[in-house]
Design goal:
Elements (H helix, E strand, L loop, with lengths): L10 E6 L3 H12 L4 E7 L2 H10 L4 E4 L8 H7 L5 E6 L5 H5 L5 E4 L4 H9 L7 E3 L2 E3 L8 E6 L2 E6 L3 E7 L2 E6 L3 E4 L3 H7 L5 E5 L2 E4 L3 E4 L3 E4 L2 E4 L5 H8 L1
Parallel strand pairs: 1-2, 1-3, 3-4, 4-5
Antiparallel strand pairs: 6-7, 8-9, 10-11, 10-14, 11-12, 13-14, 15-16, 16-17
Length: about 240
């Protein structure tokens, strides 16, 4: 698949919910997933129907109880719906929701971890799902990730990443040519990396498996750089090396 322009790489997403607070929470979560793009906030089903007539959408976050048409009634009105994740405070509608092939059913209040799990369940067209994250591939099959630094988005191929260091709410991504300081947590970047290419060795370090030169009792060496192995990760590392 040929590489698309950056603005076309994102999964186009809308929120359909009558509660502003629900929009605020989902907006924050969507903003933390780099391959998602929020294109519309709809506060009732009729507003969503009007938007879908003229715009392509890949994913909807849909509330059940709304004035006018409910979320279920709304699903009955559209013949070719996008992928749907229901967001509701009422568990009793879950079975009915799944009858309409929804991807997942999230109960409010929704945690970010549960949100990510729901996203990772979905097979989006034009994206390849690998190790619980989505990547675009070019004609050579090379894989890459987009990382945003300030207002600039960088495309970084996985095979160029040497290791990643966590620094609170930021990560330092060390590549073969530069270091990028990215506003993202270690748990978030770990979920976006293929686990057959990268290994968490410490609460603050993820390394490229292909670039490991040596593994000693308490450290991993990559291109002469000594990186610590955390006690909780030792057994996992030994298992992988065997």
């Amino acid at each position: 698949m040929a590489i698309k322009l950056l603005q076309n790489m994102k999964i186009k997403t809308i929120i359909i919910d009558d509660e502003p607070l629900a929009h605020n929470i989902l907006e924050k979560y969507i903003a933390q997933i780099t391959y998602l793009e929020l294109v519309k906030n709809c506060y009732n089903a009729m507003e969503a129907i009007s938007f879908l007539r003229n715009h392509e959408v890949d994913l909807m976050f849909l509330d059940i109880k709304m004035p006018g048409l409910t979320g279920i009634q709304f699903l009955k009105t559209i013949s070719n719906p996008p992928k749907v994740i229901i967001t509701s405070a009422y568990s009793e509608y879950a079975i009915e929701g799944y009858e309409y092939s929804v991807a997942d059913y999230l109960l409010k209040p929704i945690s970010f971890e549960r949100f990510v799990k729901a996203i990772n369940k979905i097979d989006f067209p034009n994206y390849t799902q690998t190790s619980n994250h989505f990547i675009e591939t070019n004609k050579k099959g090379e894989e890459f990730i987009f990382l945003k630094v300030d207002k600039v988005t960088h495309k970084i191929q996985f095979n160029k990443i040497k290791y990643i260091e966590g620094c609170g709410n930021y990560i330092k991504v060390f590549t073969d040519k530069k270091m990028l300081l990215v506003s993202e947590k270690m748990s978030e970047i770990e979920s976006r990396l293929p686990n057959d290419q990268f290994l968490r060795i410490h609460k603050s370090y993820i390394v490229s498996l292909n670039l490991i030169q040596e593994v000693k009792s308490n450290k991993v060496i990559i291109e002469g750089q000594n990186l610590p192995i955390g006690n909780t990760y030792k057994r996992q590392i030994e298992s992988i090396l065997k």
